[in-house]
Amino acid sequence: MQIKNSYFYYQGALNPEQCQKIIDLGTSQIQKNKEQGIETVGTTGGNRHKQHYNDTAVPLNDKTQEDLKKEKGDDIISKTYVRDSEVAWLDEKWIYDLVHPYIDRANKSAGWNYQWDCSEQFQFTVYNPGGFYGWHTDGGMCHFSKYKRVIPGITPENKDGTYSNDYTVDKWRVGKIRKLSATINLNLPGEYEGGNLKFDYGPHSESERYHECTEIRPQGSIIVFPSFIEHQVTPITKGTRYSLVLWSLGQPYK
Description:
The protein is an alpha+beta fold. The protein has helices at residues 16-35, 65-72, 93-109; strands at 8-10, 58-59, 80-81, 83-84, 86-90, 118-119, 122-127, 132-136, 148-149, 167-168, 177-185, 192-194, 197-200, 210-212, 222-226, 230-233, 236-239, 241-250.
């Protein structure tokens, strides 16, 4: 699917004090979760995150699975992880009040005009040296991508008692899909290296296929993009990257 604008961004939308307040809130929540035995690992569909593997696993980093297969053979994929990060979930109203207007403006200014009516919890994410998130999408476009309601005793459970990512216990999410993704860079540019948001526009893109969004390196910058676009966070080579991610939902495309 080709669209005129693949993303829309605002540099320095949040001020340094607001960014630091979110960092303090997020890191405090991660520490509290650890003390209470609550998982803080950034997970993936199919459990392809680092902490699910043993020490022999290798990171995908910023390569595609196809490139890795060409280099090392098909068997390498079962030993490869695609994510290494820590997360905490935030739902403070004041953060929604800050971010929602930018999502609404970007949706209109970029010409998408997608219908959306609610957002999930904010995902506060920490990427330490070596941390990354390989190629993925946040949501699909069709009705098969919509959230399904959990029915206790009937909905299949994972081995750890959780449900697949496409199921939800939240009634307001049922029947909806992720339409717009937003990422906020909370760091000063010099506090980390690597860790860029990178898009894959596909092999038939009219311009470049891969694009690193260095435009959002300034602290407090917000980028909004359709959730079906393939993207990644490149490996951190120095320092620690703090970010805030939000997914806004609506009815499936018609």
